[in-house]
UniProtKB/TrEMBL annotation:
Name used for this protein in its record: Proteinase inhibitor I3
UniProt-recorded Gene Ontology molecular function terms: endopeptidase inhibitor activity
InterPro entries in the cross-refs: KTI1, Kunitz_inhibitor_STI-like_sf, Prot_inh_Kunz-lg
PANTHER family associated with the record: KUNITZ TRYPSIN INHIBITOR 2, PROTEINASE INHIBITOR I3
Organism: Helianthus annuus
Keywords: Signal
Family as reported in the entry's similarity comment: Belongs to the protease inhibitor I3 (leguminous Kunitz-type inhibitor) family.
Signal peptide: 1-27
Length: 204
């Protein structure tokens, strides 16, 4: 039988259906775990800090430029290992009970209705530093939690953050590793450098 236009169209249709039946994601959803091995809840207060606390304390907000303004505040690592830092909420876009890796979310400060953001991830500091002042579920506040590629401790679940504005509809198709950037003794979180490895600790 000679291939007709019709059979060619039919073949194309089969091809389209076959392509569409491939699931959009690979693998199962991965839960995020805290230092005690419990699942991290979505939209609940946690402090985050380094795996080895001797490397400094937890993440907190600070007005390092001493502008006396409340916003925006910089997201930094407390220099003292005894300090757990502030509490933050990791809120997935879309209702979930538990936090999942590789899903877009916004990171809020418990007693402020603003979210972590980056002004310009491709610029140099201070424009690429993480600050507060963003709005929920926008490109400026579009982060995700991912497993840390080479964990410091095999016994602990450690993670890093990525900033992915394109996943929320803006900018080039790439993610930025959230990293520690030191300036005048202050360790800021920024969009470039060595990824900041951290663990979750549930708020008391
Ligand atoms: C929340 O408020 C308390 C008391 O007002 C303050 O000590 C704490 O630093 C605030 N947390 C943040 C993340 O701003
Ligand atoms: C982000 O970090 C991972 C793990 O260290 C690395 O493989 C990757 O190249 C980094 N991406 C960028 C854009 O720096």
């Amino acid at each position: 039988m000679k291939p007709t236009i019709l059979s060619y169209v039919a073949f194309l249709l089969v091809l389209i259906f076959a392509t569409q039946s491939i699931p959009p994601t690979t693998g199962a959803d991965n839960f995020v775990y805290d230092v005690k091995g419990n699942k991290v809840s979505n939209d609940a207060p946690y402090s985050i800090g380094p795996v080895i606390w001797a490397k400094g304390g937890g993440i907190k907000l600070t007005d390092t430029k001493n502008t006396k303004k409340m916003c925006p505040l910089y997201v930094v690592q407390d220099p003292a290992e005894v300090n757990k830092g502030d509490q933050f909420t990791f809120t997935l876009i879309g209702k979930q009970k538990y936090l999942l890796t590789s899903r877009i979310l916004s990171i809020g400060s418990c007693n402020m209705s603003t979210y972590w953001q980056i002004n310009d991830p491709e610029a140099k500091a201070p424009s690429n530093l993480v600050t507060t002042g963003g709005y929920f579920d926008t490109a400026a506040t579009c982060f995700q939690v991912v497993d840390y590629p080479k964990p410091t401790s095999p016994k602990m679940h450690s993670y890093m953050l990525q900033y992915c504005p394109w996943m929320c509809g803006a900018g080039p198709r790439s993610c930025f590793n959230i990293s520690s950037y030191e300036d005048k003794g202050v360790r800021y979180l920024a969009s470039s450098g060595t990824p900041f490895e951290f663990v979750f600790q549930k708020a008391k």
